[in-house]
């Protein structure tokens, strides 16, 4: 009688082991997919914010100094840095959001035909920001050219 109880316990243990062996990779794959989809969503939201800043900069730049406009953007959670102009924050033609991804930093950019520069902060925190976009006759970061300057409104 005692042998039959231990046989059924052993069979249950083997069944549970096979079930866990099959379930564990499925759970691991699900977590990896969730991580990738979170990074993709963050990159898409960063692209939307960069495109919005780029289009407003193009509009303000085409009007010329002293045109200015306030724009509200939503910065997603995985954004590490925001650069205006170039990745060295010099005058350029891009709005660059650097996001975290499973494969390392990912660069999300939006091109603008006007010269842009600005200070939106090296480290970006998730949240809603109001950005002052203004056309400048003398660019604060390079006094030799006109540009569209972007700064965060506190």
General shape: rod-shaped
Compute the CA-based radius of gyration. 26 Å
The total of helices stands at 1
Report helical residue fraction: 40-55%
Strand content: 35-45%
What ranges have pLDDT less than 50 throughout 5 or more consecutive residues?
A: none
How many domains would you count in the coordinates?
1
Instruction: Tell how many strands the DSSP assignment holds.
Output: 6
Classification by helices and strands: alpha+beta
**Mean pLDDT score:** 86
* Span of the ends, CA to CA: 78 Å
Please give the largest β-sheet. 6 strands, mixed
In N-to-C order, the SSE pattern is HEEEEEE
Strand order of the largest sheet: 1-5-6-4-3-2
Description:
There is one protein chain. The chain has 154 residues and is of the alpha+beta class. It has one domain (2-152). Helix content is 40%, strand content 37%. The protein has a six-stranded mixed β-sheet with strand order 1-5-6-4-3-2. A hairpin with a 2-residue loop joins strand 3 (92-101) and strand 4. The longest helix is centred in the first third of the chain and has 62 residues, at 2-63. The chain is rod-shaped, with a radius of gyration of 26 Å. The relative contact order is 0.17. The mean pLDDT is 86.
